[in-house]
Model the fold of this input.
Amino acid sequence: MPNNRVVSQEEWFAAHKAHLAREKELTRLRDAIAAERRELPWLKMRKDYVFETEQGPKRLADLFKGRGQLIVYHFMQGPGNSHRCPGCAFLADHIDGAEQHIRHHDVSLVVVSRAPLSELLPYKRRMGWKFDWVSSYASDFNFDMQVSFTDRQIAEGDTTYNFEARPLQSRELPGASVFYRDEAGNIYLTFMVRARGGDALIGAYHYLDLTPKGRNEDSRGMMSWMRLHDEYEGLEEIRESCCR
Done:
């Protein structure tokens, strides 16, 4: 049980009013950073990637579905890997609710993994997800986006993630990439979200942040409590987080 002080109504009001000033400071800073993000330089895409989808092979331009903006979530799922990343699944649980709104704002959203489509669709059905989940197995897309890494890269420490060159052990890592397509059909990479940058996409985190116990984080890892949404009941053991 949290050990917070219990005080008079007057002291409670004063403390929370003082904290509100900090909350407003964060809101203004978040708005300023969002404005700065929109002014960042873009990178023109030179490759024509092909993806495996439920409607057949599609190119990166096709994933826009006629819209001008595209958000790609990189779900950690490599070929032949039966492990289901609970962190990626936790974020993916929030996509369908958001997608029904953002598609009306010139934004398409698609989830991409390197595993073949045949390994993704049974899991998608199990979770009840409706969003488009496609495979980049036959292309360099994941490697170029620096969310997938070869055995050679890992062995030689030739790995860059979240704009930092550092040794990695995982062949797959999560993130989101944002693209813009102009009227001439040119596609640009406008922004990348990696590591804890994805926290902003997880609404449940922000609900938990309002509560006294927060996100249930402990020394075993910030996501040690996380489960696939159909695994919570009766599951007591703690797993090692794959995204820690």
